Amino acid sequence: MADSRVSRRYAQALFSTALKYDVIRSVESDLDLIVTLLNTDAGFEKFVLAPYTGREEKTATIDRIFSDRITALTMQVLRVMLEKRREEEIEGVRDEFVTLRRAHEGVIFAVITSAEIMDDGQRAALTTRLESVLGKKIEAEFKTDPRLLGGIRVAYGNYVLDGSIRGALSSLRDKLKHDLLKQQ
Amino acid sequence: MNKYALIGLGVLFVVIGFVVKDQAWTRPEMFAGLQLDLGKTVTNIGVFLVFIPVINMYFYVPLKEAMDARNHDLESTFTEAEQLRTQMQTLKVDYEARLMKTEAEARDQIQNQIKEAQNLRQQLMSEAAERADTLIRQAQLEIEQEKKNAISVIRTHVVDLTMAAAEKVIGENMDTEKNRRLVAEFIETVEVAS
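The joint structure predicted for all components is written out below.
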């Protein structure tokens, strides 16, 4: 079972080292590659996470696969994690690393959900507008949810900017119910 | 006279009687034709004198003592009976007084009990009435609350149904162009609360 405290600790160590050697983007891209492989290749995932596979065997195999594809720093961290039986934390380390990188760069991560797929022009316009409004650079993840009926919803940090029909109807419903309760 | 003196005197007479019985001057013809034997007579008197204290000692005194004792017993019995009668009389008077007192107390107690029962009845009735009023008020409040709840539920249902209908109408009327306009409008108007 993944432990976010452990992931955070590995990620902080990795990030401070990556920052020192100015390889943050490379390390992030390495971690993305490994996590993507874990999520898409069931055989690889089973091999890495299997408790009955020996540490040496795992380290040797990972070395063969990734040694010429990822940075030495990422490879070193990967070896340590395999050595310590922390394979399950790899995805958590990637997430925490990205969070640390965004905090370091002052970037806001926003999930933008729309009822229909937005075209590139709208995406660019929205990102620019949000950066202008929030005063920070935005990293956006675009999603589609037909239940919104129309419009978009932007979620970042603990905030939500709701411009969807669903949100407007929910607000209207809440307001009507609140008014009804007040009448009693 | 002392009994021993009488016995002595009797013995003396007997002796005298025996002594004189054969004397010539004691013969009957000496008393002018009176058939009196003086010796026998004196002897009889002596015997009589001897017997008087004996009879007195062995018959009369015990008899008298027995009679006295009997009299004493009878007197004691009568006295006791009289005492018992007096005591009984006293007890009777006491009993009657006590009976009267008890009757009076019983009457008072009954009156008190009746009064207490009436008070209790009054109290219970007022409590019951108060409780009934409370229950009625509570029931009215509950009915009122339930009514409000029912109205609230109905209104909430109406709101939900209205919103569901609105969603359906909007969903049916929504198209890509309208959605693009909504997104464009959001991009233009989006603001962040400071």
